[in-house]
Write a structure and sequence with these properties.
Order of helices and strands: HEHEEEHEEEHEEEHEEEEEHHEEEEEE
Largest sheet: 15 strands, antiparallel
Radius of gyration: 30 Å
Structural class: mainly beta
Mean pLDDT: 83
Distance between the termini: 33 Å
Number of domains: 2
Number of strands: 21
Shape: elongated
Helix content: 10-25%
């Protein structure tokens, strides 16, 4: 009587990987503080700002992303080197911490700056200052799906009505042009494209042609980490570190958009405003954000084969009555059993998992079954 049958590793066990995608839409109302900024949380340490989908004191609120600001020691920000709000060390530490995690170290052990480097860019455009947006793991899951990220930014020279002119930030062509030389996994380049009445500076050093389209470098996106690095050059044509992408004609005295209600430009915002104030300025210009997340489902499939001479008897005590099989009306009848479940055991015959069938399967010497059992993890 066969009660336990070993599985052949090559023939009976198969490893599979399935990717599940979910569309994540974040509309402008949530991002800009639709609940009177009650869904926007600032902290006493002042190092970042958190955005929730409901007022953050609500038990049903979900954290969706953070916003912070960082720049490195080489960033001049139009020559303004004085940090007027006393957060210079915090902003540099934030930049260095994220660069250490996402970019790693160079050959001499120094932290590498954020660099839009790769085959399409050659020597690479440095991102010496900008905004850092880590998305919640609740939204990202295992990673952001490549070539699905899209963010709308208002660039009108009016802080209170910034969406008359807009640009779209996306990871165009990232499904085939992503990079793998990051210790945090795969990353892609964010490009700016005009939308609505958006204006872009065609003379910018950030201009590049990708798949026959003229695009502008805007930052980086790290797919497994779920982090977006948005270059400050998005808001200015003269920003240190490679030139901006906004057309300077009529927009700001120094070719930059107004970034605070007081009329500050991007350089003054990054050096003369707190991190939370700069985050408020970015949120005021953030439109809809859309991307697809990815859930990686790993599975092991076991093909449990019951041949014609296997599992025709049962070890269940109720199978016998008075030493006779209760399922046989005559001793000449062929043995018969009913398969109701499959047990998976380890090498020590210890039961590890049980799979239940939707209905019993009648098993006799005249039939065979192959039961497919899948374990997801």
């Amino acid at each position: 009587m066969t009660t336990i049958k070993p599985l052949n590793t090559e023939q009976d066990i198969k490893l599979t990987r399935t990717l599940l995608y979910e569309a994540i839409p974040l509309d402008n109302l949530i991002v800009s503080g639709t609940y009177g900024d009650q869904n926007i949380k600032n902290y006493s340490h002042g190092m970042f700002q958190s955005v929730y989908d409901y007022p953050y004191l609500s038990s049903s609120a979900n954290h969706i992303f953070d916003i912070t600001v960082g720049y490195n020691s080489t960033s001049q920000l139009y020559g303004l080197t004085v940090e007027t709000v006393g957060q210079k060390s915090k902003k540099k530490n934030i930049y260095n911490q994220l660069a250490q995690i996402l970019m790693g170290y160079d050959t001499v052990g120094s932290i590498q700056n954020f660099d839009q480097d790769g085959d399409l860019i050659g020597t690479g455009t440095k991102i010496n200052s900008g905004f850092i947006i880590p998305f919640s793991r609740l939204l990202v899951k295992d990673e952001i799906k490549k070539e699905t990220f899209e963010m709308t930014l208002g660039i009108e020279d009016d802080y209170y009505s910034p969406f008359s002119n807009t640009i779209t930030i996306s990871d165009f062509s990232a499904s085939t042009e992503y990079r793998i030389n990051s210790p945090a996994g795969e990353y892609g380049i964010l490009y700016a494209t005009a939308s609505s009445n958006g204006i872009l500076d065609i003379t910018s050093s950030n201009l590049v042609t990708v798949n026959d389209r003229q695009l502008w470098y805007a930052g980086l996106i790290y797919y497994q980490a779920g982090i977006v690095i948005l270059s400050s050059s998005v808001f200015a044509t003269a920003c240190a570190g490679g030139g901006g992408i906004i057309d300077g004609s009529g927009i700001g005295a120094t070719n930059s958009v107004l970034f605070t209600p007081n009329g500050n430009l991007i350089d003054a915002a990054l050096t003369g405003s707190s991190i939370s104030a700069s985050a408020d300025g970015l949120r005021n210009r953030m439109g809809d954000i859309r991307f697809n997340n990815t859930t990686e489902l790993n599975s092991t499939v076991y093909f449990c084969r019951a041949n014609h001479n296997d599992f025709n008897y049962s070890s269940n005590p109720t199978y016998l009555s008075g030493s006779r099989m209760v399922v046989k009306s005559s001793y000449n009848d062929a043995p018969v059993s009913y398969i109701t479940s499959v047990g998976l055991y380890n090498d020590n015959n210890e039961l590890l998992a049980v799979a239940k069938l939707s209905e019993p399967l009648k098993k006799t010497p005249s039939n065979e079954y192959t039961l497919r059992v899948r374990l997801d993890y």
